Amino acid sequence: MRKLFGFIIKQLVQLFSRIFTFQFFQNLNVRKNSYYTIWISKQFKDFGNNSGINKPIYLTGGKYITIGDNFHCDHRLRLDAIDAYNNQVFTPSIVIGNNVTMQKDCHIGAIDKIVIGNNVLMGSKIFISDHSHGDTSLSSILLPPLERPLISKGPIYIENNVWIGEGAVILSGVTIGENSIIGANTVVTKSVPKNSVAAGNPAKIIKELI
């Protein structure tokens, strides 16, 4: 019975593939994501014109998050604006400018402030966080990591026209200057001046563009 059912499904798929082109299903998916964007946009503090989100998105604290015009992200974007953790209370802010594009599986988390400027291009699997369970005091070390307090070394600013390569990590207290390029798999722990190329773990300036 299972084999018969599998055979029928296979035949139906082959039939549909002859009737409907691949482009038809792509257009259908685009329309589905446009409806999804309309629904999810109501969860944000502000959501710009002509912006689109590919489902699914994993969203925490949307009321603290502002999205600019012409923003586009691929699947599985995670945005966390955390206002409370255990006994801690925060006033987070995530601001994303105009004409920003993010590829798949990016994760942005804030307890303080993260600002992404205009015309920023981001590859896949990028992690940007202004906080960690990084308290190294004895009282914290004796606790399991999940129970340790969240700490931040300061906000993150990514200025205009920045390109961030796949797998990059950007940590708290960092400013990435305008027009800069962050190489794939780079870990940024200190600020990067404008018009620079940074790469490595930890990031080092390997080239000045101007």
Written account of the structure:
It is a single chain. It contains 3 helices and 22 strands. It is an alpha/beta fold and 210 residues long. It has one domain (45-208): Hexapeptide repeat proteins (UDP N-Acetylglucosamine Acyltransferase, domain 1, 3 Solenoid), CATH 2.160.10. The strands form 4 sheets. Strands 2-5-10-13-16-19-21-22 form an 8-stranded mixed sheet. The chain has a 6-stranded parallel sheet with strand order 1-4-9-12-15-18, with no helix packed on it. The protein has a 6-stranded parallel sheet with strand order 3-6-11-14-17-20, with no helix packed on it.
Give the strand tally: 22
Determine the strand fraction and express it as a percent band: 25-35%
Rg value: 21 Å
| Overall 3D shape | globular
Largest sheet, described in full?
Answer: 8 strands, mixed
**Helix count, DSSP H or I runs of 4 or more residues:** 3
The name CATH uses for the topology is: UDP N-Acetylglucosamine Acyltransferase, domain 1
Task: Spell the H/E element sequence.
Answer: HHEEEEEEEEEEEEEEHEEEEEEEE
Taking pLDDT < 50 over at least 5 consecutive residues as the criterion, the unreliable ranges are none
The domain count comes to: 1
Helical fraction equals: 10-25%
